[in-house]
Design brief:
The protein has five helices and five strands. It has a five-stranded parallel beta sheet with strand order 3-2-1-4-5, sandwiched between helices. Helix content is about 50%, strand content about 20%. The chain is α/β, with parallel strands linked by helices.
C-alpha cells in the first residue's frame, strides 16, 4: 500500500511517538522512510537594538550551529531506531523554513505516499495561539497524513 513514508520529527517526546508508530507501519508494509527535521528561521525580532548587527550576528551563528547539532542528534536517533527494525531510511535536515512548508515540499520531491506526524490535538483558542503545523499539512496536501496523538 505505502512504499515511501515521510516521518516528521522535532525531537520531542510526542514526535517520538509518531516516529515509533511510523516505523512500525513501515516495517509491516516493507516501506522505506524519510525522516525530516525542520529548523525554522532565526527570529526576526532578535535583530533589534543599537548593537543589532554585532549581537544578532553572533546569536544567528550560535542558533544555526545549535540547530544543526540538535537536528543531527534527533536524526541519528531516528536512523538507529529504523536500523534496529530493519527499515530502510534516510534523513533530511531542512533549514530556514516553516515546518509545514518544508514537510509538504519534501513529501512531493521525495515521492512519499504517506506523511506521519504527531499532534497534541489542541482545539479552539489553544490551536489558534500555538498554531498547528500538523493542521496546516493536513489542510494543504493531497498525500494521506497519519496523525499520531
Amino acid at each position: 500500500m505505502y512504499k515511501h513514508i515521510l516521518i516528521a520529527t522535532d525531537g520531542s517526546d510526542l514526535a517520538g511517538k509518531g516516529v515509533a508508530h511510523g516505523l512500525e507501519l513501515a516495517k509491516g508494509l516493507g516501506a522505506t522512510v524519510t525522516f525530516v527535521h525542520v529548523t525554522e528561521p532565526f527570529p526576526a525580532l532578535a535583530w533589534g537594538g543599537a548593537m543589532a548587527g554585532y549581537v544578532a550576528g553572533d546569536e544567528l551563528v550560535y542558533y544555526e550551529e545549535s540547530a544543526r547539532k540538535y537536528a543531527r542528534e534527533v536524526l541519528e536517533k531516528c536512523k538507529a531506531e529504523a536500523d534496529a527494525l530493519g527499515v530502510g531510511s534516510r534523513s533530511l535536515h531542512i533549514e530556514n523554513r516553516t515546518p509545514a512548508e518544508a514537510i509538504l515540499e519534501t513529501a512531493g520531491a521525495e515521492s512519499c505516499d504517506l506523511i506521519v506526524m504527531a499532534s497534541h490535538g489542541r482545539r479552539g483558542i489553544g490551536r489558534l495561539v500555538l498554531g498547528s503545523q500538523t493542521a496546516e499539512v493536513v489542510s494543504l496536501t493531497e498525500i494521506p497524513v497519519l496523525v499520531v496523538r
